[in-house]
Amino acid sequence: MPTHSESVPMAELTDGKRTITVGVSSRSQVSKRFVRATNSEHVGEFVTFETEAQARQALGADLAAPETFEWVRKFLDHEIPYEQFMAGRAS
Question: Are the C-beta atoms of 22 and 59 separated by less than 8 Å?
Fold first, then answer.
């Protein structure tokens, strides 16, 4: 479990053009990243979860699978709603 000042990256998903970092972060860390982004600082694309168990439920066991990148991309591009994303790929 991350402390209030750290993030734990689980995977960097990429299709060669776009990289999305998946990890576990505290709300404090997410808030800091948000503030940096709103101040026009490039922070990259992140999908963060409160626990590793939540990440595994939403993304499946194999984070390196091409389907995982596609699932996260669809969420970030607003093609699937939050509830469906958190329920996981198998749902």
Answer: yes
